[in-house]
Every structure is written in C-alpha cells, then in structure tokens.
Amino acid sequence: MTVAPPPQPAEAPQPAKPGKPASLWSDAWYDLRRNKVFIIGAVLVFLLVLMALFPSLFSHVDAYNPATCNLANARQGVTGAHWFGTDNQGCDTYSRVIYGARVSILVGILTAVITGVVGGGLGLVAGFYGRWVDILLSRVAEIFFAIPAILGALLILSVVGRDNSQKWGVWVVVMALALLAWPLVLRIMRASVISAKNQDYVVAARALGAGSGRIMMRHILPNAIAPVIVTSTLNLGVFISAEAGLSFLGVGIQAPTISWGLMIADARARFLSAPEMLLFPALLLSITVLAFVMLGDAVRDALDPKLR
C-alpha cells in the first residue's frame, strides 16, 4: 500500500520588482503591441511612408519614368512591361501610382501636424485661462465651424490655388484644409484641459508655487493631449481623401505634380474602355485611408480609459 506524500506548503508570493510606475502611455503601448488591428495598420502605414520617401524601391523607374510619356502606348492595358497599364498620355500607371503616394501622404501628415499644433495650442490656452480668453477663442472657432469644409476648401483653392499651384504646390492645399480643421482640435483639447486642470495634482502644483507656464507644460499638457493625438491620427485618412477629392475636382494639386486624385480624374472618361487607369489609383487611395483609420481606431481604444 502506497502512502501519499505530505502536501507541500504553498510558496510565498514574490514581491513585485521595483520599476517605473504604470502610466497611461505605458499601458497604451502594452495594449497596442497586442492589438492585431494596430499591427496591421502600422505595417501598412510603414510601407506607405517608405513608398512615399523612397518610391524607387517599389517601382521599375529605370525602365519607365513616371514623367516620361509616349502617346503611342496610350491606354495599352496591363502587360508584363506595364503592370498597371498606361494612361491617356501613355505614361506608366504603376510608376505614377507609386509616386502619387508622396503627395497624398505628405498632405495628410502636414495638415494633421498643423491642425494638432495650432488647435491643440489654442485649446490649451482657452481651457486653462478660461474667462474672456476662452470666450474669444471659442467664438472665433465657431465662425470657422459655420463654414462647410468642402465648400470652404473649394472657395479658398479656387481663389488662390490655381494662381499659386506651381509656386507653392502642396502647401496651398495643406493650408486650405488646416484653416478649416483646427477648430475641431481646439474644442477637443479645451474640454480635456478643463477636465485636467481641476485634478488634485494640478492643485498641489499650484499650492507649491508652480507658475502657470510650468503647470500647463509639465502637468496639464501630458495628461490632456491624448484625445488630440487620437483625433489627429484619425484625421490623417480624412485629409488624404480630402486632397484626392479636391484634386479630382480640379482645384487641388495641379499637373505636372502626380496625385491619385488627378489620376482618377483623368481616367474617369475612359473607365469603360480602360478601367485599370481608375481602379489602381483608387485602390491605393482606399488602402491608404483604411490603414490610417485602423491606426487611429487602435490608438483611440488604447488611450481611452473608458474602453479598457
């Protein structure tokens, strides 16, 4: 008859290793690394940014320069030499699609950065100081809110865009979009600052003699900027699609600059006879917008404590 061994005493729990305290940013990064949507979106965005910075890595530009066209090869269709076919001027569509990523992504990033800095900075000031400063900035923002975004951008670009398209190029479109988009960021930042400035750590910093500038930059801004980051990331896809739409309407990016919106506009009249001219730039545009939307959704889920 076998005798069961006596039960072993349970091991005492090990004390936690000392380290940095958990924060919103460390918890967000921990969640993002395990979010499949974020990983897929980040990989797509990385490839698209790499394509915009180094288009020669993705295109056979040595054989077919995107700016070199031959009317004898117009609307040739998909072949071994022209993977996406050729356009109405006989230009290689594949190379032009690759090079078109540069303008679209540049417009999206520049507009998101400008609106984030301007709207976020003004929202920080309005939410922190309140009173007449808040009233003045909020009323100015409401004036811009009253202007429909697409109509306002069309009006601005139709007045100044064509005359300065060659001189300023992308910056005309960026400033037109940023001029109408910063009030949204201001509202979001203002609400976040109003919530943060009443927290105990701000009251303690003020009691210890910290000045307004130090309180804003060291205590309020790091704890209130998360919604602005989320909004700016989501707006990247919106700005990219807005640039394509304005270029499609003829008031955005102008030739000879390569843009997906211009390519789609040139291809619409020949869609039935040469659909690849429209489908491929539209597909790359959709993938780009989807990648930034996926990235923004994942960042929003990670930075919003209510969704944890």
Automatic annotation (TrEMBL):
Give the GO terms filed under biological process for this record: transmembrane transport
**Record keyword Zinc present:** no
One GO cellular-component annotation of the UniProt record comes to: plasma membrane
Give the subcellular location: Cell membrane
Give the Pfam families listed for this entry.
BPD_transp_1, OppC_N
Q: Which UniProt keywords apply?
A: Cell membrane, Membrane, Transmembrane, Transmembrane helix, Transport
Pro residues: compositionally biased ranges? 1-18
User: Which domain of life does this protein belong to?
Assistant: Bacteria
Q: Which residues form the ABC transmembrane type-1 domain?
A: 101-296
Q: What is its main location?
A: membrane
Membrane topology category = Multi-pass membrane protein
Tell whether Transmembrane helix is among the UniProt keywords: yes
User: Which parts of this chain are annotated as the region Disordered?
Assistant: 1-21
TM stretches of this protein = 37-58, 105-129, 141-162, 168-189, 220-240, 246-265, 277-296
Q: Which family does it belong to?
A: Belongs to the binding-protein-dependent transport system permease family.
Q: What is this protein called?
A: Peptide ABC transporter permease
What is the native source organism of this protein? Planotetraspora thailandica
